[in-house]
Every structure is written in structure tokens, then in C-alpha cells.
Design goal:
It is an enzyme of class 6 (ligase). The protein has 471 residues and is of the alpha/beta class. The chain is 35% helix and 25% strand. The strands form 4 sheets. The protein has an 11-stranded mixed beta sheet, sandwiched between helices. Strands 16-17-21-18-19-20 form a 6-stranded mixed beta sheet, with helices on both faces. Strands 1-2-3-4 form a 4-stranded parallel beta sheet. The longest helix is centred in the middle third of the chain and has 16 residues. Bound molecules: ligand UAG, adenosine-5'-triphosphate, 2,6-diaminopimelic acid and magnesium ion. Adenosine-5'-triphosphate binds next to helix 4, helix 10 and helix 12.
Length: 471
């Protein structure tokens, strides 16, 4: 790609790459200057040009000296569009998942289903970039646009044909996952989270809907879970745009979920596809995991899978790291589960998943993240107090905030809960309290490997701590 291809200028200087951080610019790059949440990228244009940027994608009002000013009203969108062309080609089949909860699980399950059906598949999301051979962590659910496009192009070069990626609301809003064709897009559910960023539930929902309204290929397919309060609204929008629709759930027309029965090691689902009803035995517990498997199956169908093979594959799905993962059974016989529930709705879903398996008491250990939506703290406390027998409030990534203040906000809504700030101590105490017939749920950190305190990440793994405490 030459500068003239991009900016309708005479210059045929070759573009060497794209950067959105001036510290990463090398000679011949195009720099994207975006006003951000912390700083204004437009302030770094001079630095980017000094480092060798030959073009700058920026708002028309901005001053650019020493490089082509490629004007754009929405510089993030335009940057993604042209960088998307530069880094192509990409894997042949790309699908995306959005929703408040269940994105990571669904992309990972989609990857597994494709792999079991013989495709070379990958997933991109909170767990990083996952293939059959490897997992590379990226730090964020949706890293920046340049990393995203590089990852997609790299997967293509590795021979990967199918990729499922997680479309977070931040990522959609900031075009961090734009620039690649999206052949199918799924909606899992919608509930409170991230209002620190989006401010209102309406704005949060609109950010998610960008996936269906703008990002999904006009010839693509939307896969919508039917059992959420927002499902009908999503379906109406998809129909209004005129893209192909597949619905999945108890009201699903593509995959209908009938009766669901918990079994000792998982669950049995009655599911109907194309007029035929079959019993699917899933090796995973919890209603929410069934929902995610079925949405993943919808994505697999939307990308051309045959039902027979897909049905076989669903029965062999493996657990997703940190999602209702059984870490250990304590010396006194209580199973300890680790789950990534960090919203009120997720906490309710995780507790509901375990409830049928509890004979005695359900002991929930949880906290809420610092520098994240403070309004979810009370509702998380309420849910934990109402549905658990014992709730222990502890720390979960306080970041720059005072952890005692976060706990206080939760405890205000859960006055009966026990407060133990130190997460290791809290886990030990929960396991010490639990006897045979009880279940311990450690919620909020899932797969995470650290506790973020201030600017430091202290090594911490709920599964590991559970194992050392259970001995
Ligand atoms: C609030 C938010 O979403 N911030 C993200 C966003 O940053 P931003 O664009 O606002 O960046 P900024 O720091 O204000 O800087 C503005 C611009 O100046 C540039 N810059 C900055 C400094 C400099 O010296 N030179 C320079 O050029 C930056 O590269 C940027 O383009 O875009 C960056 C990548 O493009 C992200 O790293 C960053 O994530 C921060 C670290 C973060 O904590 N994000 C969380 C809230 C997040 O995004 N989470 C979601 C959702 C999780 C989920 O529900 O699954 C996720 O997708 O991970
Ligand atoms: N379909 C679902 N319905 C309700 N809750 C769910 C669902 N799927 C997952 N959860 C809950 O949300 C937690 C996180 O799941 P997962 O990591 O798949 O979601 P996510 O949308 O990727 O989350 P994040 O916003 O952190 O990226 C799970 O551990 C579980 O407690
Ligand atoms: N993607 C979510 C993860 C939250 C995980 C929880 N452990 C926390 O730190 O709040 C976020 O960035 O809000
Ligand atoms: Mg995720």
C-alpha cells in the first residue's frame, strides 16, 4: 500500500505499517491520533512525525506538520478501515460475540466445536489468542486495533481458517476490533456492567449493537440468544437491517432448548433443530454454560457446520478455564469452584449453576474490581447475600482504589456478609468452614493470575490458593 492509495495524494511512498501510540512509530508508518480517556493522542503527532510517520489520520481541525494529514471525522473508524486493508488477508471465517456475560466462554466453545469438526480454529478474547497448540495472553479482552489486526493476519499465515473473537463494548465503541469482515455475530445477554465508561445502560447497549448494526457483514448471520430481556430488541434490529437471523434458546427457531436436567457430572438438554428433537448430554454444569454452548453451536451452523457433526462435538465440549472450574475437593469433602462472575447477573448465574449440587451450604467468596463501575458493587452484594448461605466479601483487583471502601460499598448491601480483605485468608476461611455437602464458590477472578493493587500485579491464582488451602 502506498500513501497515494490511502490519501488521494500524488506521493507513492510505501507505507510500512500503522501505529496508534507514537512510541511505537517507525519510519514509513501511518499514525492514528485519537482523543482518549486518559490523554489526547493528537498531542503526540509531532513525536510521531519525528519518529518517521509519513501520514497522520486525525480530525480535520488538528494541525499536522511534516507528514500528510489524512483527515477523518471519525479517525478511529477510518484508521481501522485502512489498516484493515493493509494487514489483510485474514482467516476465511471470522465470527464475533458480544453480550455482558458469556463472551469468552462462547468464543472458546466455538473454537472447540470447529476444531472437533476438523477446522484449524482460534479464539481471541479475555483469555488471549488461543489455538489448539498455544495460548498467548494479550492483557485486555480487545487489545488495540493494530494488535488485533496483526493477530488476525498472523493466524491466517499460520493456516488458521476459522476465528471467533470477543467484541467487548469498549472495543466496539473504540473500533479496536474493526477492519476485518465479520461473517456471523452473536448476542448472549445484557445486564449491568461498565457504567463507569458508558454512563447509561442505553449507551452501553448501543455500543454492543454496533456489532449488528455496523460491523456484521450485510451478507452475514446474526445469532441471537432468545432468553434475555433484551433479546427481542436485538432481533428487531437485526430484522430491520435485513441480515440473516438465527435464534437459539427456549424460543429459538434454529436451535430450541426444551427441558434441561442436571446430572451428577453435567446436564442433559432436550434440543430441537430442523424439526428433530434429540437429547444432548453436556459434560458441563449450569444453565449459563448450556446457553453458551448453544450460542456457539449457532455460530458454527452460521459458518456452515453440518448438524450431525456439530451435535457430536457439543457432547464432547471441554470446560473453559476459570468458568465454573472445579479447583479441588477439600479434605473435608467440599468441592471448591472458581468462576469469573464479576457482575451481579453473572454472580446470580454462577450461584444458580451450583445450587442444584449443594446439599448443605453454599459459601461464596467475592469482591468487586477497583476503577470499574462502582454502581455494580451494591447489587453484587445483594445477589451474593440473597442466594448464598454464607457470603464472604474480599478484594478483587482494587487497582488505584482503597480496597476497604470497595468492600464497604458491597457490605452496605450485604450486612450479614463476613469481611476478610486479604483474598488468600478469605479463601482459607471459606474452605475451613465448609464441610461435606457444602460447596465453596470463589467468584470474580476466574483464570486471572494476579491481584492488581495500585500499579502492581501480585501473583495470585484462585485455583492454586484453593488447592493449597484445601490440603
Ligand atoms: C478506557 C479505555 O477503554 N481505555 C483503552 C483505550 O485507551 P484510550 O484510547 O482511551 O487511550 P489513552 O491512554 O487515553 O491515549 C489516547 C491515545 O494516545 C496514544 N498515546 C498515549 C500516550 C503516549 O505517550 N503516546 C500516544 O500516542 C494512545 O495510544 C491512544 O491512542 O484503548 C487502549 C488500546 O487501544 C486500551 O489499552 C485502553 O484500555 C485501558 C488500559 C483499560 O483498562 N481498558 C479496560 C476498561 C477495557 O478496555 N476493558 C474492555 C472490556 C472488558 C470486558 O468486558 O471483557 C476490554 O476490551 O478489555
Ligand atoms: N450466558 C451467561 N449468562 C449469565 N451469566 C454468564 C453467562 N456466561 C457466563 N456467565 C457468567 O459470567 C462470567 C464470565 O464469563 P465469560 O468470561 O464467558 O464472560 P465475558 O462476557 O467474556 O466476560 P468479560 O466481560 O470479563 O470479558 C462466568 O464466569 C459466569 O459467572
Ligand atoms: N473485563 C472485566 C474483567 C473484570 C474482572 C474482575 N476481576 C475485576 O478486576 O473487576 C473488566 O475489565 O471490567
Ligand atoms: Mg471476556
Amino acid at each position: 500500500m502506498r500513501l497515494c492509495d490511502l490519501a488521494r495524494r500524488a506521493s507513492d511512498i510505501k507505507i510500512t505499517g500503522f501505529a496508534i501510540d507514537h512510541r511505537k512509530v517507525v519510519q514509513g508508518n501511518i499514525f492514528g491520533a485519537f482523543p482518549g480517556a486518559k490523554v489526547n493522542g493528537e498531542d503526540f503527532i509531532e513525536g510521531a512525525v519525528a519518529a518517521g510517520a509519513i501520514g497522520v489520520i486525525a480530525r480535520p481541525s488538528v494541525k499536522v506538520d511534516g507528514a500528510e494529514h489524512i483527515e477523518a471525522e471519525d479517525p478511529r473508524a477510518y484508521f481501522a478501515h485502512v489498516a484493515g486493508r493493509f494487514y489483510a488477508p485474514y482467516p476465511d471465517t471470522i465470527v464475533a460475540v458480544t453480550g455482558t456475560n458469556g463472551k469468552t466462554s462462547t468464543v472458546e466453545m466455538t473454537r472447540q466445536l470447529w476444531r472437533m469438526m476438523g477446522a484449524r480454529a482460534a479464539s481471541i478474547g479475555t483469555l488471549g489468542v488461543t489455538t489448539s497448540e498455544d495460548q498467548v495472553k494479550t492483557g485486555l479482552t480487545s487489545p488495540d486495533i493494530v494488535t488485533f489486526l496483526n493477530n488476525m493476519a498472523g493466524l491466517k499465515r499460520m493456516g488458521i481458517s476459522h476465528v471467533a473473537f470477543e467484541a467487548s463494548s469498549h472495543g466496539l465503541d473504540q473500533h479496536r476490533t474493526s477492519g476485518v469482515p465479520v461473517h456471523a455475530a452473536a448476542f448472549t445477554n445484557f445486564s449491568r456492567d461498565h457504567l463507569d465508561y458508558h454512563e447509561t445502560m442505553e449507551a452501553y447497549f448501543e455500543a454492543k449493537m454496533k456489532l449488528f448494526d455496523e460491523r456484521l457483514d450485510p451478507k452475514g448471520t446474526a445469532v441471537v440468544w432468545t432468553d434475555d430481556d433484551k433479546s427481542d430488541e436485538v432481533i428487531a434490529r437485526v430484522k430491520a437491517r435485513g441480515v440473516k437471523l438465527m435464534t437459539v434458546g427456549s424460543r429459538g427457531e434454529t436451535i430450541r432448548l426444551g427441558e434441561r436436567r442436571a446430572t451428577p457430572l453435567g446436564q442433559a438438554l432436550s434440543i430441537t433443530h430442523d424439526g428433530e428433537t434429540q437429547l444432548l448430554k453436556l459434560p458441563l454444569i449450569g444453565e449459563y454454560q448450556a446457553a453458551n454452548v448453544l450460542v456457539a453451536a449457532g455460530l458454527a451452523l452460521a459458518s456452515g457446520a453440518s448438524w450431525g457433526k456439530l451435535f457430536q462435538a457439543m457432547g464432547r465440549i471441554s470446560p473453559v478455564r476459570g468458568r465454573l472450574e472445579r479447583a479441588v475437593i477439600s479434605a473435608r469433602g467440599a468441592p471448591v469452584y472458581v468462576d469469573y462472575a464479576h457482575t451481579p447477573d453473572a454472580l446470580e448465574a454462577a450461584i444458580a449453576a451450583l445450587r442444584p449440587h449443594v446439599e448443605g451450604r453454599l459459601i461464596t467468596v467475592f469482591g468487586a474490581g477497583g476503577d470499574r463501575d462502582a454502581g455494580k458493587r451494591g447489587p453484587m452484594g445483594e445477589v451474593a447475600a440473597e442466594y448464598s448461605d454464607i457470603a464472604i466479601v474480599t478484594d478483587d483487583n482494587p487497582r488505584s482504589e482503597d480496597p476497604a471502601k470497595i468492600r464497604k460499598a458491597i457490605l452496605k448491601a450485604a450486612p450479614e456478609a463476613i469481611e476478610i480483605g486479604d483474598r488468600r485468608e478469605a479463601i482459607r476461611e471459606a474452605i475451613r468452614m465448609a464441610g461435606a455437602g457444602d460447596i465453596v464458590l470463589l467468584a470474580g477472578k476466574g483464570h486471572e493470575q494476579g491481584q492488581i493493587v495500585g500499579d502492581h500485579v501480585l501473583p495470585f491464582d484462585d485455583v492454586e490458593v484453593a488447592r493449597e488451602s484445601a490440603a
